[in-house]
Amino acid sequence: RLLAVAALCGLCLFPKTFVARRGIVSLERSFRAPHLRAWPNPSRRKIGSCVQVSRVAMDGISPQYVEHIVAARELMKAEGVECLLVTKTPTFFWLTGGRCYVPTIEESGPAQLFVDQEKAVVVTTSIEGNKMRTQECLGFEVKEAAWAGLPGTMDAIITELVAGRSVETDTDSLEAKLDELMVDLTDHDVAAYRALGKDIGEALAEAARSVCVGDSEYKVAGITHACYNKRGIDLVMIAVAHDERISWDRHPLPRLGVGTELKKVCMIATCGRRKGLICSLSRLVCFGEVPAELRTIHDVCMQVDAEINLATVPGKSADELYHVIVKAYTDRGYGEQILQHHQGGLIGYKCRHWIAQPGGQQVIKAGRAYAWNPTIAGKTIGTKSEDTIYVNNNGSMEVLTNSPDWPMVDVKTGDGRTMSRPDILVK
Question: What's this model's pTM, rounded to 2 decimal places?
């Protein structure tokens, strides 16, 4: 770790050479596709031991995104792709850490990223140029197109960058392989994920403690937004349900008006994003004594959650994990619940990159994050148990989204193992 710090310091102080984790890295030459490498990350993608980069191309870009650009370029080279045009929000986030959109509902926005083996250039409009250059995509070259005449003005810049070569977008043949690359978390990604998980766990706990009897679902959503936003986290999904609605609406978008006021039980389910990485977690609050039905089903839900989280080990398939959840519900007398909601899966730069389904061929891998979300609907109330976890390189699992001072229960699984899960907060 000291060598890694020395490497970054050396890059700033001694522009000709710097010491990386292994050996000496030369900065004499500019990017050349056959020679482009990142410093080693033995716990993730195996990339060569030397990096030869252009100071112009890479100065000021976070090492986290340098690694991602290197990985994308190696994929392009392997697939015979000369130029890549990134248009989708998750891929843009992965390669730059920046927000390419203006309305948050859009899957793409007025900023795109052009990548070849020598350049990584943000192409946007004159409206967004300064923002992209100084706030969202630090260190990247930014080219601006006049807004009058769009999309032709941006197309002209891209045509000039392509210079007659073949070009693919991130919605073409590389889409699935780019998706695979972005979920293989580097050390920098993991550090960012842990920081996000800590903040988001605190944010939801703060929001849950702030709700009051009589609050509408929309008011609770607003409280939650404020707690997330002040930590630099955008809510990309929020579901709020009060009382009986928790039993019949599995994706309860918040409502306003008569009948939405909180009487006793509030459930808040969220997906929060910062610089592209997303965490999912849910919490329940109860005012006064927990109803007997809620106590029963939440105990079961925590047990199912523990079973699936502890079964998330490298080599397991999505199909195997789906059947772990089926058995966990069935053994406890709630077998029908598997049919009423998906149970989660791989998370990262999307709320879910895939969900576990019967016959699913996806495989659990170390160095990735997962979020499972078992839910149970009772006759009068419902519940959910959800956190985001990270599978370490040794196969062990850690919870990223713990909420400080939240009531926890040590839950035993069928094979005798124990995992601590969030209980219901009683106010």
Answer: 0.86
